[in-house]
Design brief:
The complex is a heterodimer. By secondary structure, chain A is of the alpha/beta class. Chain A has helices spanning 45-52, 75-82, 100-105, 114-118, 124-136, 152-165, 182-199, 210-216, 239-246, 249-266; strands at 6-14, 20-29, 34-38, 60-65, 68-69, 85-88, 170-174, 202-206, 219-224, 227-233. Chain A is globular. Chain B has one domain (37-241): Orthogonal Bundle (MetI-like fold). Chain B is built from ten helices and no strands. Classes of the chains: A alpha/beta, B mainly alpha. Chains A and B meet through α2, β6, α4 and α6 of A and α7 and α8 of B. The structure holds adenosine-5'-triphosphate and magnesium ion.
């Protein structure tokens, strides 16, 4: 695939403490795709997302957002490119003491100069855009409420509105529903799906439930111990692949005693 | 426990502390204080004006310190400092400023700049800057990194990250610490007059040196009521912040 919006080439990453989180990953992401990223805890999924939007500079390899090679670019250039990518977090990460509307407007900061933004001089179009997005995620009635008074599902919807306020071409969602109840999870996944289908915004979503993956994703990327172990369509994700992903020999030995204690509790 | 006893015993040497002295001393002070009554309010309006000057000194001493401490505390926090040398420099500066009591500083500033409230304000400002840098930077270090990362991820610049991710999180602490220091500064400013650095302290020295104890009684009452009112109002505001 020659012209992907995001290109990750031979990327490896080792954290300062020596942990190798990614080893020689090469991947491309096109506009319009809904990609699920799966893999056991510690596989490197979150790290890869942060490499894609330049919050983490990989220790090796190259990363492109459009034409910009962000892995080697100066910070200001990375910031400029990053504006095309929204991010949604497991713990929502709204600024807790600001209102829902102010949180959505944070998505506009990239277009404002520092003085205007410090004084919170958002233009009328920005406010209208933000209100419209809150409406879209069903949160217009809560616009003036402080973020820390909202439920988890509501906070996540505001989080998505904040990402959309950037008018991004891609949204990275790092386990967006892991902290939510089933009903809120479904709402959030459906919003992400409609963003992808209606607005043509690419979505890359870290997920833990394979059922959710099968329901929403077009493409699946699987990581294990920092390596790419599967990249294909959802239909090609066989039982064996997914099982080998989560239960390898070493882990099953660790898991068995835990299961045993759980069973003994159940008695 | 043993260490506490050792320190207490050690501290009796050279301080003339003994149970007998403690009793006679308290009794003598009691008799002395009795001479403050009834308070003499003939110059009451002067005392009141001077108390207002004292409070104004505390207002400006605290305000200048706040203005200096907000940017400096970002340099003095491990998670926002631009460089470890800048961090070391601002931390040590804060240590030095806090180490210098405002009374001692006031003597220095009076010697350098002459008598009046201005050197007093500077003295309060310097020592308060030291304290506020320490308190603010500790609040900055406790900031939730998730909120910071989210604002960064939206493409915000470094200054915008400070104003939209750090600042909203530290604002309650920053304001309540500042008010708390303001209360302390009102009390601190009442003695600065003793070295000629403005405020009501000048009247206290004057009255006691002139054996005008009933006037001193009136001044002390003005101070007590003012300090009580300031503490009360400031505590009310701090309550609403948290
Ligand atoms: N800031 C960091 N410093 C050091 N090591 C880190 C850091 N962040 C992550 N790691 C390590 O890098 C590896 C990959 O972590 P990462 O968070 O990318 O995994 P993940 O696939 O997102 O896992 P999870 O499903 O638990 O979220 C792990 O071993 C983790 O402990
Ligand atoms: Mg993760």
């Amino acid at each position: 695939m020659g012209e992907s919006f995001i290109r990750v080439e031979q990327v490896s990453h080792r954290y300062a403490n020596g942990t190798v989180a990614l080893s020689s990953i090469t991947l491309g992401f096109n506009i319009n795709q809904f990609t699920a990223m799966i893999g056991p805890s510690g596989a490197g999924k979150s790290t890869l997302m942060r490499v894609i939007n330049g919050l983490v500079r990989p220790s090796e390899g190259q990363v492109f957002i459009g034409d910009t090679r962000i892995s080697q670019a100066p910070e200001a250039t990375v910031r400029q490119a990053r504006r095309q990518i929204g991010m949604v977090f497991q713990q929502f990460n709204l600024v807790r003491r600001l209102t829902a509307l102010e949180n959505v407007l944070i998505g506009r900061l990239g277009t404002l100069n520092p003085v205007a933004s410090t004084l919170k001089l958002y233009g009328r179009e920005d406010r209208e855009l933000a209100m419209g997005l809150l409406e879209r995620v069903g949160m217009a009635d809560y616009a003036w409420q402080r973020a820390d008074t909202l439920s988890g599902g509501q906070q996540q919807r505001v989080g998505i509105a904040r990402a959309l306020a950037q008018q991004p071409r891609l949204i990275l969602a790092d386990e967006p529903v892991s902290a939510l109840d089933p009903k809120s999870s479904e709402q959030v996944m459906e919003i992400l799906q409609s963003i992808n289908a209606q607005d043509g915004i690419a979505v890359i979503c870290n997920l833990h439930h394979l059922d959710t993956v099968r329901e929403y994703a077009d493409r699946v990327v699987a990581l294990k111990r920092g390596q790419l172990v599967f990249d294909g369509s959802v239909a090609d994700l066989s039982e064996e692949v997914s099982r080998s992903l989560y239960y390898d020999e070493q882990q099953s030995r660790e898991i068995t005693p835990i299961l045993a204690t759980q069973l003994s509790f159940a008695d | 426990m043993a260490a506490v006893v050792v320190v207490l015993v050690w501290s009796t040497f050279g301080t003339e502390l003994s149970p007998w002295r403690l009793l006679t001393g308290l009794a003598a002070s009691g008799r002395f204080i009795a001479e403050f009554f009834p308070p003499d309010f003939t110059r009451g309006s002067e005392y009141l004006n001077s108390m207002f000057e004292t409070i104004k000194m505390a207002v400006w001493g605290t305000a200048l310190a706040f203005i200096a401490a907000v940017p400096l505390s970002f340099w003095a926090a491990t998670n926002t400092t631009p460089h470890s040398l800048v961090y070391q420099f601002t931390r040590r500066m804060s240590d030095v400023f806090r180490g210098l009591n405002e009374f001692v500083l006031a003597m220095v500033f009076v010697a350098a700049l002459g008598l009046g409230p201005f050197p007093g304000i500077l003295a309060l400002a310097v020592s308060t800057t030291g304290t506020l840098i320490k308190l603010f930077s500790e609040a900055i270090e406790l900031v939730d990194v998730g909120q910071v990362e989210a604002v960064k991820a939206s493409g915000a610049g470094p200054l915008q990250v400070l104003t939209h991710a750090y600042w909203p999180q530290i604002v309650p602490t920053v304001l309540s610490m500042t008010l708390y220091r303001f209360e302390a500064n009102v009390r601190g400013a009442t003695v600065l007059g003793l070295v000629g650095a403005g405020g009501i302290g000048l009247y206290v020295t004057e009255a006691i040196r002139g054996f005008n104890f009933q006037a001193a009684g009136a001044i002390l009452m003005v101070i007590l009521v003012a300090v009580f009112l300031v503490d009360f109002l400031s505590a009310k505001v701090r309550e609403r912040l948290s």
